[in-house]
Specification:
By secondary structure, the chain is α/β, with parallel strands linked by helices. The protein contains eleven helices and 15 strands. Bound molecules: NADP nicotinamide-adenine-dinucleotide phosphate (NAP).
Length: 324
């Protein structure tokens, strides 16, 4: 079968299509004939910096849709041929991928395989940011970075559906228009946001800030919180040194900082992830959330998809078409 592999870390050009043996599922695992694979920002970090890469060569990719090909020993509740969406621990840019059965989900009714490939990382992550970690209440105000991206678009929709005022930050005017149209954002700021947030909230600040960027953006998001506000950190797109906050930043202002990682949750608490994913997928089935696929590439064009996202020019969700 064909799979995308990297032999070394570097730019998009290190992504190569190679011929490899079809992987067999081990105990508790499922193999899937891949229809589509989703592109995630974490894939770019893995390629470039080795983020969560155990060793080289490495096959990237964290999410797929497709048909169950084979079940490993002890797997119940799934059938060969069934349409599924799955979170993988790498190896998703391939004709066949293997996932832990705990992270393989039936495709929600009424959803096609193309849309299904957009769900496994973005939907549960966004749901966790808004509801589980963010504990958003109706009438509150949310501030989200990267508002036109995969997570940003869905987080905006979920926040709006939860009855919040939704503010976003993006890097271009085109992305601002996308976030308003597809992410239900009330206001979107381009670039610097500190002053604009204070004006928009009449000096009060926001109840929930979602930060996938880190560094200065993390600190500015913390400063933008209203009393009792929450900041959820869930990425480090800036590549800045890991943040650290303590009593002086939190105690006097009554604010809190939390975090979320879907990949760690999948490893440490698969039952929690299943519950979270079922709740999140229900928001697609009932029409609360849609995430537009804005570009689709062949497996051999994975580098092009990485270039698009790496240049900060992508919106919505990017997919690789494998057997779709
Ligand atoms: N913790 C988790 O469980 C989890 C799960 C999924 C995703 N994430 C994180 O959520 C973020 C969005 O992921 P995604 O896959 O949905 O990607 P995406 O948003 O579709 O695309 C990448 C995003 O990164 C933003 N960005 C900000 N600073 C950047 C920089 N210095 N270089 C490049 N891009 C930058 C871009 O927004 P602007 O150009 O508008 O700034 C763009 O929206 C990523 O940081 C990712 O690591 C975390």
């Amino acid at each position: 079968m064909r799979a995308v592999e990297i032999q070394e870390h570097g730019g998009p050009e290190v992504l190569e299509v190679v011929e490899v043996d079809v992987p067999e599922p081990g105990p508790g695992q499922v193999s899937v004939d891949v229809a589509y694979a989703g592109i995630n920002f974490a894939d770019l970090k893995a390629r470039e910096t080795g983020y969560r890469v155990p060793s080289l060569p490495f096959r990237p990719g964290l999410e797929i849709s497709g048909h169950v090909r084979a079940l490993g020993a002890g797997v119940t509740g799934l059938t060969v041929g069934q349409e599924v969406a799955a979170l993988t621990a790498g190896g998703a840019y391939a004709e066949v991928a293997v996932a832990e059965a705990a992270t393989v989900f039936p495709v929600p009714s009424g959803v096609g395989l193309r849309t299904a490939a957009t769900l496994p990382t973005v939907l549960p992550t966004s749901y966790a940011l808004i509801h589980s970690a963010g504990r958003l209440q109706p009438g509150e105000t949310v501030l989200a970075q990267g508002a036109a991206g995969g997570v940003g678009t869905v987080a905006g929709r979920l926040a709006k559906a939860a009855g919040a005022t939704v503010l976003g930050v993006v890097s271009s005017a085109g992305k601002a228009a996308f976030a308003k149209e597809h992410g239900s954002y009330d206001e979107v700021f381009v670039g610097d946001f500190e002053k604009a947030v204070q004006e928009s909230t009449h000096g009060r600040g926001v109840d929930l800030a979602l930060d996938p960027v880190g560094g200065d953006t993390f600190r500015a998001s913390l400063a933008a919180l209203a009393p009792f506000g929450r900041l959820v950190s869930f990425g480090n797109a800036s590549g800045a040194a890991p943040w650290s906050v303590g009593q002086p930043e939190l105690f006097p202002y009554g604010v809190s900082v939390g975090g979320f990682s879907i990949l760690t949750l999948a490893r440490t608490a698969p039952d929690e992830l299943r519950t979270l994913t079922e709740r999140a997928f229900a928001k697609v089935a009932d029409g609360t959330v849609t995430l537009p696929v804005t570009a689709e590439f062949d497996l051999a064009e994975a580098a092009e998809a990485h270039r698009l996202m790496g240049a900060r020019t992508s919106t919505g969700k990017l997919l690789l078409r494998v057997n779709g």
